[in-house]
Amino acid sequence: MPSLTVTASSHSSASAAVVYAALLHAESWPLWSAYADVEWDVPAGIDRPARVGDRRTIRSLTGRVYCHERVVEMVPDQRFGYEQASGLFTSHRGSVDLARAPHGGTDITWSATYRRTLPRLQTLRSRRLQVWVDDLASYADSIVSRNS
After folding, report:
1. What pLDDT is attached to residue 135?
2. Model confidence pTM above 0.90
3. Can you tell me the distance from the alpha carbon of 140 to that of 127, in angstroms, rounded to the nearest whole number?
């Protein structure tokens, strides 16, 4: 099976710091994601920010586990990288890149590379990723609106 890379982009009026914080804040995922919520897999009683090497579990809103991911890169307010550690779907590696937009706000680019996939899944994966990046941008916009 061939590999597949999909990329989706969106724009938020929010700063990169706001977008990055929303991405890392597990409790906010059900508020902005049409598909999933996320739970960081850290030992009980430990309260600290996410860091490289941490794992997270991505679930559908119905509670079905999509996958378990491991954080592989964190550049605050610029880049968040992850790879699939285990799960139902084909292994993949993804990143969310944030860049200051020329006219203000943040340009968000979410990319994922699947090591092995069926060609007919390309459209589905592309659409789903576009929904995720648009939802993240809209949620960050709503934070800016609430705080204005």
Report:
1. 93
2. no
3. 20
Helix axes 122-146, 16-24, angle to 10 degrees: 120
φ/ψ of residue 75, rounded to 5: -120, 100
Q: What tokens were used for 141?
A: 């916009």
Q: Please, which residues have CB within 8 angstroms of residue 38's CB and are 6 or more apart in sequence?
A: 26, 29, 56, 57, 58, 59
Q: What proportion of the chain, given as a percentage, has pLDDT over 70?
A: 85
Residues 6+ apart with CB under 8 A from 24: 49, 50, 80
Q: Which two tokens stand for residue 127?
A: 């659409």
Tens digit of each residue's pLDDT (9 = 90 or more) over 56-90 = 888 777 766 677 888 999 999 999 999 987 765 55
36: CB partners within 8 A, 6+ apart: 29, 58, 59, 60, 61, 66
- Closest by CA to 26, choosing from 5, 48, 45, 3, is 48
Answer yes or no: are the C-beta atoms of 38 and 57 closer than 8 Å.
yes
Q: Which residue has the tokens 């990329």?
A: 7
Ranges of beta strands (E only) in the chain are: 4-12, 36-41, 55-60, 65-75, 79-87, 92-100, 106-114
Asked if residue 77 lies in contact with residue 17, where contact means CB atoms within 8 angstroms, the answer is yes
